[in-house]
Batch of 4 targets.
Target 1
Amino acid sequence: MENEQKRRRCAIYTRYSSDLQRATSIEDQERQCREECAKHDGWTIVEEWVMRDRAVSGRSLVGRDALNALKQGAKLKPRPFDCVLIDDTSRLGRNLPDVLRLAEVFQHHGVTLQFVCPPLNSDQPHFRELLMMKGWMDEQHSIALAARVRRGQAGSVLRGYSAGSASYGYKNVNDPNPNGKSDSILGVRLEIVPEQAQVVCRIYEMYASGDFSLDRIAQTLRAEQIPPPKGPRRNSLRGWSPDGIASILRNKKYIGINEWGRSISSRNPETGQYETRDRPESEWVKNDNPQWRIVSNELWRQVQQQIERKKHFGIPKLGGLDRTKRSRTYLFSGLLRCGLCGGPINIVDGTASTTVWYGCPTRRYKGACSNSVRIRRDLLEEQCNEPLRF
């Protein structure tokens, strides 16, 4: 046993969570792990198993590609490493059930976990009890930090500042604190970007006229090669889309009203995915900011009336396969993926009474993907269903 302790092939796992932490945190963690390895005779680093998760939250296992690779590596025969070096228990995760489960998985496959700070080793007696105590502290720190950040953001909104990324038409500008340190700020204010503000006004005018649908507005802006706003999610492709146009038409910032906290994200304990839910209006934080105004009250009123008319006479969308009766007949919508952008393949043209085509909606609705390949629904379903027939 003593010889086995002396000879260890070590992997390294590092993680930093978001823009609130420095990207160099990865380098600092790795340095700590290498220094820990050097303290033990016979311990060596397996360089191909030095794994890094960048800008990924520890509150969930979703998106932890490096960690998942280590788990799969632990199951290989022969096993490529005997130990995983981790700088701190919080780097493994900030959700206690996840942390305990991960420790069990590695131990089951004969892989030791070695934490640098605090110095914990999964081969030690009472390791699980100690990990539970430290893991609980890590989890509570994450919860408290989220509450402090949210409280600070609410205060910034009430002082007339912005909380979060800037909407299309604006840019974030730091307001320096004259009485603080050189990098201290009072808040982040929104500043109008004139060329984008002109596009916003034009979008409102087109929709208010009644001659332009959301899709036609998006197609017009794409045809004119007007730079689109950033996507709502990390790594999402930029492009003018009907959903993006609808979001602009409902954004009260353009009439100088900030409504913050309309929704909240929480982690689904079953799937590990973060889900967004609407909050009651009584919990919103509101503030008037006349300097943000881009659209007149009259143009805003005309657009909202037009939206209500379309909502009243249009087709209701309930989401999923229940949004329309026709959509329930499209077996493969959302199950296939575009080979270029990685997005889902859905119905992009046609109706039940005509020829229906599957294709890349990112190209169809945003023009942000070059995949122009389409396939008729009947041909696709025939090809995909054939192997299932007996």
Target 2
Amino acid sequence: NRLETAGVLTIDELASTKLNVVPKLSGDILDRLQAQAKIQIASEGAETPLYKVVLHDAGRALGLALLPPHSNSDVFFDIEGFPLIDGGLEYLWGVAYFDEGGNRTFRDFWGHDHAQEQQAFIDFVDWVFDRWLQDPSMHIYHYASYEVTALRRLMGRYGIREYEVDTLLRNEVFVDLYNVVRHGVLVGEPSYSIKNVEHIYRGKRDTDVASGSESIVVYEEWRANPDGMTWEESAVLNAIRDYNIDDCNSTQELTEWLRAEQSANNIDYVGRAPDEAEKEVEEETEITSLRDRLLEMSENETDDDKCSVLRNLAWLLEFHKRENKPTWWRLFDRLGLFISYR
């Protein structure tokens, strides 16, 4: 809208504009938009889009400086979610990683209702947390904010694995490659989704499910008429799983490509070092002890009403602490933006 108000109506006009000032638009953003327009136009008709690494001042936590060094324990993470039921459902948690022999491997955690989703969340967090404890140089790579947002939401919804998720977040174990790309590389594509960016570093996809939105439609059809309850039995779930594997593999390949560009451009990592990891033991208080006893009682209770009361009492004990977490998350997110842009 600001560009149009200044008389710049098309991408070609943006690429060739001589304007130095656009009202309510900073000069840095105008320069970045014009550079994006130029590289997009130059990439039209090309088999592989052009790209250019964006260099920032040394020591600035921005772009490729946010990419940590390689670890053999690194994990490449992608969730398939289904938003068309109350509260949504994170039904497939997929991770690519390398085994001890150096072979790329895939592991998946499934949940087709909220009880199964809770167990998938527990199993995933336990697996990655234990992996990080064994190797603090390990990171969990994902593309865009969906995965971390889902983890935060589910740990609050179910009141479980709060210490583990908070510890991973506090130690900057999760790496959002979208933030690395959007501030670190100019790409001659109309979108910075991973499906567009991967035109640079990998070939064309050949999975039956082609996009995240398509996976929602396919999964909805499966829920209405399941052809099996596991991916081994169901052709539909197997197709979604193949799509998730491809997303995880693409995330891993993107990481390696970015790391090669980081090295070629002599960009140093600016972030927390493994020896700075904070691994405090979760403190058990009278409240947490009482919470655990109430939950144990609820599991042994045969009366559904009494079970519900016991569980509600258990979660009420830490209600205010749990409700305050999003406030702290927003604070740290904003502090991260300040550090990046100062």
Target 3
Amino acid sequence: MSEFFTNLKIRQKLVAAFAAILLVILVLASTVFANALFLKGSSDWKDHSHLVLDDLAGIKLSMVNQETGLRGYLVSGTEAFLDPYKAGRKDFDRLIADIRDLTRDNPQQQVRLQRLETAAHHWQSEIAEREIALARQDSSREQGRQAEAGGAGKSDMDSIRAIADEFEAAERGLLSQRSGAESAAYA
């Protein structure tokens, strides 16, 4: 084989050398391009996880606003105190739809999300709306207050928080995996 190269003309040797260099450059460029695509995808997935976590934080805040509005109304009897409750319900519904769409490719998160939504709707319909209806009537206002003071919705709220924490832990686990894969690609 070495005789073959020694018998080649200089022009042919140069073409062969440039072809070898070009082949190495193409292999390196392909590797760099593949890593760049992986890093872009990894970065997109990390951004996705951050969006999910932001929506989850908004869901938690919407529940706090609902609970605060309910309690304010029960204490004051003033309809304006229900504004955070009403706004919180709207935010909750919007954010649940957003996060459901964002996690549509993750069946475990969808199950957690359904459990969270079911628990929140139970609290809204069975606790909050019932207490609001009681507080709107002079004859039953104290009964509504006593229901809240007695912890009527505590188990529902504890369940909502626990499910949200479980959802968040799973999403943070995905974020950690994605960050690890991205770091490995950079290395």
Target 4
Amino acid sequence: MFGVGSTDGHEVMFLLECDAPGVLLKRCPVFSGMEGTGTYSVRLTNVFVGDDCIIADPMRPFIARIRGAFVVLQCGMGLGVIQGAIDCCWEVDDQLGHVNEFLHDRPDELQAELDELTMRVNRLAAEPCNGSKDHLIDTLDASAHCSELALKASQPALLHQGARGYLMSAAPQRLIREAHFVAIVTPALKHLRKEIARLSQPVCPA
């Protein structure tokens, strides 16, 4: 799905066959995590787009309508990383619980925060195309919370597992890299916070 603009500012969104004439895909440099996302750069040269491929014309109103749905959809990735990190903590509790109890960010505390966040995301997902500004701000904030909690939970996963979690093949190593991916993937945590600040500014009367 792509959007393209013309020199006169007219923008459309359309479906693209990646093996169509004039379409060139180039694999991005290797990521340290989440390589399964299959991220490519795409170059189009004289590509014909038929009417049956047009999703939205003009594009901007459609983007505004689906923006919240797109953001809340990405929350699932963060929620999964967080749960995986918590599970890594519990995995060693029988053997290392007597020392892990002295660590901050214990798995029961992280799980409580995750459960509350999951319920919040589910409420937002029930109205994916709610066009209100308040709903969008809440959605952006929930996505930011997913990023922050993924970062917060991935480090305890390593600390709770200790040396075994420091092995390159250990799950906490992967989860730490995945948590950083969650925090930098579009929209990145910094962009979420910037947009929340912009939307939260009072509207001055003309």
